[in-house]
Design brief:
Shape: globular
Structural class: mainly alpha
Number of helices: 20
Distance between the termini: 48 Å
Helix content: over 70%
Largest sheet: 2 strands, antiparallel
Strand order of the largest sheet: 1-2
Strand content: under 5%
Order of helices and strands: HHHHHEEHHHHHHHHHHHHHHH
Radius of gyration: 23 Å
């Protein structure tokens, strides 16, 4: 890493922040375009001499053609958005689950959200088109000062970029910023400015339901054929387990399970707040199908996330007290079962090996992350450094070390210390303050419950700000709050 690269990554994040903080519409648009240009430039600069860009260096005409094709597609999509501005939200929601394996020449292919990147680029181009020309804005027309959630997110992103300067794995930090934080922050800015309507909100809920049913169908086929479409690691693990996990079109069964759980929470919201009989019957039928799909993932974190989301929905519908009573009773019953008959559940609370096996190695990762935090409590080892530092400290191979502790607060604490942990907690505080603020209808209740479920999932797995669903839910919540403030009925 050079000083220029460290300055560049911070500059790109500050350019994104300008899209929120600057008052002049033209300045905001120019700042967002600058972030859009700086993002790939930073990545190319960092990886230019590495094996990962052999294809680009060895075949420059093909690389240039591919880049121009992507830019042309984004420009054409931007022209369509200027005619149909509401399509931005639908395109973004529809692109969320699709990852494209890209061969980087460094072993395993990188699974990148290429469709979503194209949608974000098109949205930024369309956003800037009218504003730079001084015309009335059509795409994301709502303009408002950045609120507490936006400021907390931007602070977390800029801090992450700054702490990459002393990281032992600057490349990992850069990839997180380039592939996740910058494009997703731009996505949040666009969605927060959408003119939400009842029809648009319903379509944005129906679209992922339709996609989830398709994914579940593919998962059923995988289970019946005992064959996965991809991910050799899951294929190998299925050979040695008594159960068969499916991942559908997702690379990871846990990410597939997370998506299904969030969609199921939306269907449950329809059951609790819906009024039309046909909607209730369709939601119930879809829930039954998706439950079967979720079961075949064998994702414990996704089951837990679904329960948390359903609990939040119940609390919003009937009050928190009965939900807390039921939750406390279930927790006591589970604790009694583990203590009274540990062999029945194959879990010995006093044996770290038993806990580690039951949690798929998470206990060792959490312990290692906690020790890293205690060694450098103030500023941590640097953004993106967890995997490399964990391997060196525990003397394990790269195949045996995960990319994170599978518990987001511990990963943040180990990499960024108290500074990063404070920024993370501030994001949670402001975000929950936003999504849990009524009044609640189907969509707002779904957003609140889905966000709570996602946060719980990150405590057992990974990917909080690295998941576009986080930014999408918060962007929608900001837009819906603005609609309520202007006196419009909540969708």
């Amino acid at each position: 890493m050079t000083a220029l690269e460290a300055i560049g990554i911070v500059a790109a994040c500050l350019a994104v922040a300008g899209g929120f903080a600057l008052r002049d519409p033209r300045a905001r648009a120019a700042s967002m375009l600058a972030a859009l240009v700086l993002t790939p430039a930073l990545l190319l600069g960092e990886l230019w001499d590495s094996d990962q860009l052999d294809v680009v260096r060895d075949h420059p005409p093909a690389a240039i053609a591919a880049g121009l094709a992507g830019l042309g597609l984004a420009a054409a999509l931007a022209a369509g958005l200027l005619r149909r501005p509401a399509a931005l939200a639908l395109l973004a929601v529809g692109a969320l689950p699709f990852r494209v394996p890209v061969d980087t020449g460094a072993g395993d292919p990188a699974n990148l959200l290429v469709p979503l990147y194209i949608v974000v680029a098109a949205g930024v181009i369309a956003y800037a088109w009218d504003r730079l020309r001084g015309r009335e804005a059509r795409v994301a027309p709502r303009e408002a000062p950045a609120g507490a959630v936006e400021l907390a997110l931007l602070a977390a992103v800029v801090l992450y970029a700054a702490q990459a300067a002393y990281s032992s794995d600057f490349e990992a930090a850069l990839k997180n910023v380039v592939f996740f934080y910058i494009p997703f922050a731009l996505l949040l800015r666009l969605l927060a400015g959408v003119a939400w309507s009842r029809r648009l909100a319903a379509a944005c809920l129906a679209l992922p339901v339709s996609l989830a049913l398709v994914f579940a169908g593919i998962g059923f086929w995988e289970y019946a054929a005992r064959e996965l479409l991809w991910n050799p690691k899951v294929v190998a693990s299925n050979q040695f387990e008594s159960y068969f996990r499916v991942n559908s079109l997702f690379f990871d069964p846990n990410i597939y399970g997370r998506f299904l759980a969030i969609v199921m929470i939306g269907l449950a919201a329809v059951l609790l707040w819906g009024e039309r009989r046909r909607d209730l019957l369709v939601a119930a039928a879809a829930l039954a199908v998706l439950w079967g799909g979720l079961v075949l993932t064998f994702s414990q974190s996704s089951f837990g996330a679904l329960l948390v989301g359903l609990g939040v929905l119940a609390a919003l519908r009937w009050g928190a007290r009965p939900v807390l009573v039921v939750t406390a009773g279930a927790a006591v019953a589970g604790l009694v079962l583990v203590l009274a008959a540990p062999g029945l559940v194959r879990l010995d609370p006093g044996d770290e090996r038993s806990l580690d096996a039951a949690s798929s190695g998470r206990i060792s990762l959490m312990r290692g992350g906690a020790e890293m935090f205690l060694d450098r409590p103030l500023a941590g080892f640097g953004s993106g450094s967890f995997a490399r530092e964990f391997r060196e400290r525990e003397e394990v191979s790269s195949e045996e070390a995960a990319s994170a502790s599978h518990t987001i607060p511990i990963t943040v604490a180990a990499e960024q210390g108290i500074l990063g942990l404070g920024a993370y907690l501030l994001v949670l505080w402001t975000a929950f303050g936003l999504v849990l603020r009524g009044p609640f209808g189907v969509v707002r209740a779904f957003v609140a419950a889905a966000f709570a479920a996602l946060v719980f999932h990150t405590l057992l797995y990974a990917a909080f700000l690295e998941d576009p669903i986080t930014w999408t839910l918060l962007g929608a919540a900001i837009g819906l709050r603005a609609r309520t403030r202007t006196g419009s009925s909540s969708p």
